[in-house]
Amino acid sequence: KATMKSLRFITAEAFVSNAEFVRKSLGGVAHNLFPLLFKASYLLEQGEVIHDLVENWPLVDFNMGKLLGTTVDYQEDLSCRTCSVCLESCLTGLRDYVLNHPSPYVKRLKVVDLTGIKDVEVQFCECKKTMGRWARTQLLSKLCLELLVYLQQTQCNPGAFEISVDVLIDLFVTERNYELVMQALLKKCCCPLKICCVSFRSDNLDLQKFFYIIKLTDPSLLRKLEIVHNVRLEMEHLEILFNSIHFPLLMSLTLPARTFNVQRFTATDERMLTNIGEKMGEMTQLTELSMPFSILTGRIQKLLSPLKTPLKMLDVSNCSLNHADMAYLANSFHANHLEALDLSGHKILDLYPSIFFKLLSHSSSVLRSLTLEDCNIQDTHVNMLILGLSPCQKLQEFKFLGNPLSSQALKHLFTFLCELPMLKNVEFPVPRDCYPIGITYPIDDASLCRFDHHKYESVAEDLNLILLQANREDVKASTPLFGSYDAAVQETNNELGAYLIKSFKETLERFTTSLNKMS
C-alpha cells in the first residue's frame, strides 16, 4: 500500500531527480535538509546524488538505520533495501568525503553507522541488485585500503590525515575476503575511516585465521558473534577463545554445529565445559545463545546456570536434550524472559509434554517466536499443542516444519492460530497425506520434494481461506521446504558449496589412505 509523503518530501524528490542541478546547488543547502534529501534520493535510487550528499555530509553523524527508517516526512522504512547502486554510492561518497578538498563545509563527521541495514529475502528496489553483508564488508575494506594508498602516494591535503571517522559495521568474513579484511583491520590506525566491528560473522574459514582476525576486530566492542558454517570450532577451541579474549559487551553468540559432544566426554571435558559456562557468566550482556546440532544431553544446567543475565533467545535445536535438561529450562530464571525459543529435533510432546507446557506457560507473557521443527508432532498431539500455545498471546512467529501432521489436523490447528492476536508468520509442514503411504519421519532430503504438489496447493488454499475468513490476512503462511531464508548463506552459497565438496574430498582421501594402510 502507498505511504503518504509530506509536501517537503515530494519537493525533495523533485530536487534530487536532477543530479547535475544538485551538484551545483549543494553549497547553498541548509545542513538540516541533508537527511531528507538522502532518504528521497535513496528511494529514487539516485546514485550520483547519494554520493554527493555523503561526500559533503555536514553533520556529526550519519546513521543509515535512522536516515532510512520511519521519518515524519515519509513513514516507509527503507532500511531493508540493500540496493547495490545506493550502497556503493554511499560508501564511495564516504571515501571521497576524506579526499574532497576544499569542501564547502567544515568536516564535522565523526560516526557512520551502517549496522541498521537489514538483509531481507524480497527486495523492492528498482535495480533488483542487492549488496549483502559480505559484499559490504568487502567494499568497505577495499575502499579503506585504496584510501591509504592514495593518501600516501599523492601530495594531498594534509588535513585528510586529521579526519577520523568511526564506521560501525556488521562484518562478514569468509576465506574469500579474509585477506582484504585482515589488511584493512591491520592498518586501521593509519586510515581516516576506522572500521568498528559491532557484529562479526564467520563462515568457511580456517580456525587459525578466525582466531587471528577476531583479535583484530577489537572484541571489547563486539555485540554479536556468529561462527556458523564450516568453521571447525570444537569445545577445546571455544575454551581457548574465551580464556584468551574478553567480550564484555557481547549480547549474542552463535556457535557452529557439533561444538559440543558429551557422548565422548572425559573428566577433562567436564572441567572444560564448566569453565566455558563460567566464562559465559562473565559476559553480563549475553541474552541470545544459539548452539544447534551439538550433543548436550544432561549438560544444559552446567552451561547455562552461571549466566547472570536471563536469556531472551535460545536455540538448542537438535541438541539431544533429555528430561533433566527440559526440567532445568522450565524452572530456570531464563524461562520467564524467553522471547525466541527453538527446540527443533526433540520429541517434546511424546517424551515430556508437561515440562514443555510449564516452560511455555512461564515464557508465555514474552514469547514472540517458537520453532518446533522435526518434533514428531502428530495428529493426536494437536489438542494438547493448542492447550500449550493458548497462553502465548504475544506469539508473532510459529514454525513447525517436518512434523507428520495430516491436512485435517493442520486445518484444526490453523483455526486456533487465528486467535493469536500478534501472529504474523507461520511455517507449516507439507501434510503427511500428500506424501506416499509409508513415508518415515524425519523425511530425508531426497524424499522431501516427492509429494503430491496438486494436493498440497489445494490444502494450502484451504488454510489461507481459514485465515481469510477470520480476517487474518496479516498472517503469512508458507512451507519453505529447505528451511527459512538466511541472507548470509544466500549471498555466499557458491563458496559454501565449494567448501563442502573440498571437505568431502579430503575425508574420502583420508578414508582411502587408512584403507590402504590396513590392506
Automatic annotation (TrEMBL):
Transmembrane spans: none
GO cellular component, one term: cytoplasm
Keywords (A to Z) from UniProt: Leucine-rich repeat, Repeat
Source organism, top-level taxon: Eukaryota
Annotated InterPro entries: LRR_dom_sf (IPR032675), LRRC14/PRAME (IPR050694)
PANTHER family: LEUCINE-RICH REPEAT-CONTAINING PROTEIN 14B, SIMILAR TO PREFERENTIALLY EXPRESSED ANTIGEN IN MELANOMA-LIKE 3
Family classification: Belongs to the PRAME family. LRRC14 subfamily.
Name assigned to this protein: Leucine-rich repeat-containing protein 14B
Organism annotation: Pygoscelis papua (Gentoo penguin)
Upper taxonomic lineage: Eukaryota, Metazoa, Chordata, Craniata, Vertebrata
